[in-house]
Amino acid sequence: VPYGLRLLRHHRVKVRRHTNSMLDTSKSLNPPVVVHCSAGVGRTGVVILTELMISCLEHNERVEVPMMLSHLRQQRMLMVQTISQYKFVYQVLIQFLKNSRLI
Predict the structure, then answer these.
(1) Is 37 assigned a catalytic role?
(2) pLDDT value, residue 102
(3) Which string of b and e fits 38-55 if b means at least 16 CB within 10 Å?
(4) Contact in structure between 12 and 95 (CB atoms under 8 Å)
(5) Residue 62 per-residue DSSP state
(6) CA 29 to chain CA centroid, nearest Å
(7) Residue 31's closest CA among 19, 21, 45?
(8) Which residues form the signal peptide (predicted)?
(9) Are 81 and 45 in contact (CB under 8 A)?
(10) What pLDDT sits at residue 100?
(11) CA–CA dist 98, 103 (Å, integer)
């Protein structure tokens, strides 16, 4: 599990800012980003699942964490390995909604 909600949010902003600064202005913003931890499943899964769910919220789409995690695990087994990692994803989403004043 990442060190905390603030740190993850700060990291998200830095990654987006950096990737967007490297783009040609004629191309779209928020290009794909490579995410990988030591094994490429637990923490990587947390970051990918969190990003996907936040993107759903930003685009007013359905947020179905269990279904998305199942889909991710079809592509790479063991994505999001522990209960604490799974809970952390929900905590990030709740914090995102609070910061966005949606709840």
Answers:
(1) yes
(2) 73
(3) eeebbbbbbbbbbbbbbe
(4) no
(5) -
(6) 16
(7) 19
(8) none
(9) yes
(10) 85
(11) 5
Chain centroid to CA 74: 18
Amino acid at 94: I
Amino acid at 55: S
Structure tokens at 87: 């809970």
Q: Are 5 and 91 in contact (CB under 8 A)?
A: yes
Among 37, 39, 67, 94, the one annotated catalytic: 37
pLDDT at 103 (0 to 100): 76
The pTM of this model reads 0.74
**pLDDT for the residue 61:** 95
Question: Rounded CA gap, 74 and 97, in Å?
Answer: 28
Please tell me the predicted confidence (pLDDT) of residue 65: 97
Q: Quick one: tokens of 57?
A: 């919220």
Mean pLDDT, 10 residues at a time, over the chain (103 residues)? 62 68 63 68 86 91 96 92 93 90 77
Contact 33, 15 (CB under 8 A): yes
Residue entry with tokens 């949010």: 9
